[in-house]
Amino acid sequence: MEKVKLPTSVSAALKAQGVSVDSVLFASATDMNTFCEYADGYVVLADDKLCVLASPPCPEQVRLFKGYGTKAEAEADVPHDWAVKIMPLAELEQLSIERQVACGILVANNGERLAAFSNLHTKKMHLLVRAFENLKNPQPDFMNHEKEEEEYCPTCGTMYPNKNRKICPKCMDRGTIFMRVLRYFKPYIGKMAIMMVCFFGIAGLNLVWPYLNGTVLYDYILEKDAAFLERIGIPNAEFATALLLVVLAMFLAKLSIQLLSVLQGIFTAQIVTSVVRDLKKDIFGAMGKLSINFYKSRQTGSLMTRVLSDAERVTGFFIDGAPYVLIHGFTILSTIAVMFSIRWELAIVACILTPISVVIGFKLRPYFWRLFGRSHRAERAINSQVNDNLTGARVVKAFGQEQREISRFHTNNTRMMDAELSIVRFDVKFSFIYHFTQELTNFIVWLIGVFLIFRSINFELGVLITFVGYVGQLSGPMNFFSHVFRWWSNSINSAQRMFEILDSIPEVQESENPVSMPKPRGEIVLDHVTFGYEINKPVLKNINLRVNEGEMLGIVGRSGAGKTTLVNLISRMYDPQEGTITLDGVNVRDLTFHDLRRNVAMVSQETYIFMGTVEQNIAYANPNASKAEIIRAAVLASAHDFILRMPDGYDTVIGSAGRELSGGERQRISIARAILANPKILILDEATASVDTETEKAIQSSINYLIKGRTTISIAHRLSTLRDADKLVVIDNGEITEEGTQKELTALHGTYYKLMELQTKALALKGIE
Amino acid sequence: MPKGPQKGSNSAGGGEEEFNLEQMEKETEEMLKLRYLDDSNAVFERTQGGFVSVRIKEEFYPRVQVIRMFPFSDPEKYISIRTPDEHSKEIGVIEDMKQISKETRKMLEEQLNLRYFTPIITKIINIKDEYGYAYFDVVTDRGACRFTINVGGHAVVHLSETRILISDIDENRFEIPDVTKLSARELKLLDLFL
């Protein structure tokens, strides 16, 4: 075994107590004492003793928790005055970790507190306890998780907040997000090119407009400038013709601008909708691939916001924002150039104030970023609540709580309003400054222009009008630049949330070279399986189980004992932390998802009916099934009769938008679904728990048909359901406590016997079920 | 590799030789009762290992678990005294900590403080929001702490209009008892989560 790394002062303190550093097997830091003070400590497991090191509390020391700080900081060798307590392992029978609300304590012999630690160290402490247990009672396949270390970003050295998603929030710069979104536009590059041509066409024509409308009209035509007519090739000073031509040119310019706008609008709409579609497809796909855990930790409403509005918000900027940066940049620069060529003194006056608004807009960016984040969260809260209320409508009504729900909604709604209002308020303040500078500029230009004309210093009215036209021309793009940062924030904010999903790595993944097993025999073996939803809270502990081909295994146990978790592991909703699950001798981790899930079907207490017809629902796992097969499955599931009692038969729309089914009916639909899926392994998770005894009988006979020739694992509270089981196991607290045939278990006079006695005496007592 | 059926001997209730319905009914009935404890009927004592024991008439529990029923809304009332095992059963309830003697109260509070360990944030130095995570740099009543929270999850919980509870990615807890007492700058930093 590799030597355990210890801080020098810890090694020294151990040495002083006569503990050889080479004998150390495992060590974990702690960061609290039992008086609720932060204080560094160490728990060291050596060959024959456990050493607990404590140091006096040190409030000046900054505590770094997970995700904060670099590896060097986390492993800093802070010297302490260690108080060492040594316990010979011979005197230590039991070592356990007791989870508190937000910390943990290490307890010896079920009665002595040894150390306390924040959740930062919980995982490592659990590993220490495991190592201790292995020392006391060696397991042949004990895995030392010591190498399971936190990972750090190679660039800045910060710990990844989530090990499964190796993206450092600090190093992930927003420009990268921009480029990633841009990639979605690549397939539409042709349309984008046309769009850009339109944009530049419009910008160019807009540039010509003030010239036509000012200088040409006023100074050349109205002032009857013959030289100008010569130049454009109209002899004899026919000013009427010239006027007509200019008006025509002006008309054509405006017309072209409009036409180009329409064209550009059409292409924009096409690109936006396509990109939004592609983005949504990717997010939905990514969410589908994620493991069950992902869904458990998030609210449905908030996920809906992500799929539905974020994609639009992101694309919005890229179409209505990004190209205009180019266009408006071009417009501004060329307009300024033209202005300078007309009269540089006036141009300076006109431009002097404009950078101010751009600078202000840029400076305010972080505030917008924050405000948008807040508005998004408020929106999410509303979505979640609406979702919550719609799902729970029945309970709300049953307890007559509509009014309270309305006021709860009102609170969230007001919060959303406030968030939006603060954005608008901010915006208005900003717009005021911006428009004020603009009006001021305009005013000054007019003032100086008129002054120049009075003094007639080589300046004419037409030129002034042209000039003012250009100043006006600047206003649109400048206004855009003042808002573009806001858009940018908004859109990158949304993009960031989207990529968070796209980048998540599913916890349960298909192996790289999965084995295909289209027709397994159906022999399942669980070998030393340990699993917990959190690594330090095992729900299943060291489970060994074997179900032979075609056998039926019954699982009994109180609620929360880990029965459902056990069957979820078989279909790889989760992967066990330790041990293996094999199907026909092949680790389920090595099987293709397709083969595994095709061959394992589950009928559970929670039946989900999708929006669609009865036929579609039955054929969910096997969409290619023929009508005859569907009917046969329904008959076998004793669903046929009630289906035909509905007016539209198999075409009846059921699910959230359609007809409501009773619990027993839903159950039978899901059994039909499983029959049609024709799996080799069938899992029944309290399949008849929610129906009355009569319906149960009917469903039971369908199930009896269903289990023929399949390996079946059935979880049931009602022991009568398990009469035909070849073998039964009782699970308590994540462990198999009893195992054997019905006869053997009855003879054992244990939990199974107790349950059976209770049920035969028809006493459904609380807590025992 | 099925293990022999004899493993069942250590299961819950496995110790009973015969099935005793009356006994069970009695147990169940007891489960439905609430027993209030105070100085008159219960004697609490510190144990050597740092826990607390209780004697209630003839019953003696060498070690008990002390739990608040309303840790946020009423931490001083309704304290449940329970057995420490995994199927923790209720031994009794202290209705109000004010009704018991000072020493007992102190003794129980020591247990409660550790169980509900939550540093109180007294000063916010900085909060940085980056790509789905927020980095907090704060001072608490237990010293300076730097921790990370997941912005997308339920890391920030509003216990009331002004009181918030923050859980970092390991679910360590930090509390701000009254946000209105924060400075304008701190509020601005925290604004994101209000």
Entry keywords:
heterodimer, A: 769 residues, alpha+beta, 6-stranded mixed sheet, 4-stranded antiparallel sheet, 53% helix, 14% strand, extended, disordered C terminus, B: 194 residues, 2 domains, 3-stranded antiparallel sheet, 3 helices, 37% strand, elongated, disordered N terminus
Beta-strand residue fraction of chain A:
5-15%
| Amino-to-carboxy terminus distance of chain B | 56 Å
Q: What share of residues of chain A is helical?
A: 40-55%
What profile does the largest beta sheet of chain A have? 6 strands, mixed
Question: Tell me, what's the shape of chain A?
Answer: extended
Number of strands of chain B: 12
Percent strand of chain B equals 35-45%
Oligomer: heterodimer
Provide the residue-averaged pLDDT of chain A: 80
Distance between the termini of chain A: 48 Å
The portion of residues assigned to helices of chain B is: 10-25%
Radius of gyration of chain A: 37 Å
List the helices and strands and how they pair.
The complex is a heterodimer of chains A (769) and B (194).
Chain A: H1 8-16, E1 24-32, E2 38-46, E3 49-54, E4 63-64, H2 71-74, E5 83-88, E6 95-99, E7 103-108, E8 112-118, H3 122-136, H4 174-183, H5 189-222, H6 226-231, H7 239-289, H8 292-296, H9 300-320, H10 322-342, H11 344-352, H12 354-363, H13 365-391, H14 393-398, H15 402-454, H16 461-503, E9 524-531, E10 540-547, E11 552-556, H17 563-570, E12 578-583, E13 586-587, H18 593-599, E14 600-604, E15 612-613, H19 614-618, H20 627-636, H21 640-645, E16 653-654, H22 663-677, E17 681-685, H23 693-706, E18 711-715, E19 727-732, E20 735-740, H24 742-748, H25 751-760
Parallel strand pairs in A: 11-18, 11-19, 14-17, 17-18
Antiparallel strand pairs in A: 1-2, 2-3, 3-5, 6-7, 7-8, 9-10, 9-12, 12-13, 15-16, 19-20
Chain B: H1 21-31, E1 36-37, E2 43-46, E3 52-56, E4 59-68, E5 77-82, E6 90-96, H2 102-115, E7 121-130, E8 133-140, E9 143-150, E10 156-158, E11 164-167, E12 173-176, H3 184-190
Parallel strand pairs in B: 1-6
Antiparallel strand pairs in B: 2-3, 3-4, 4-5, 5-6, 7-8, 8-9, 10-11, 11-12
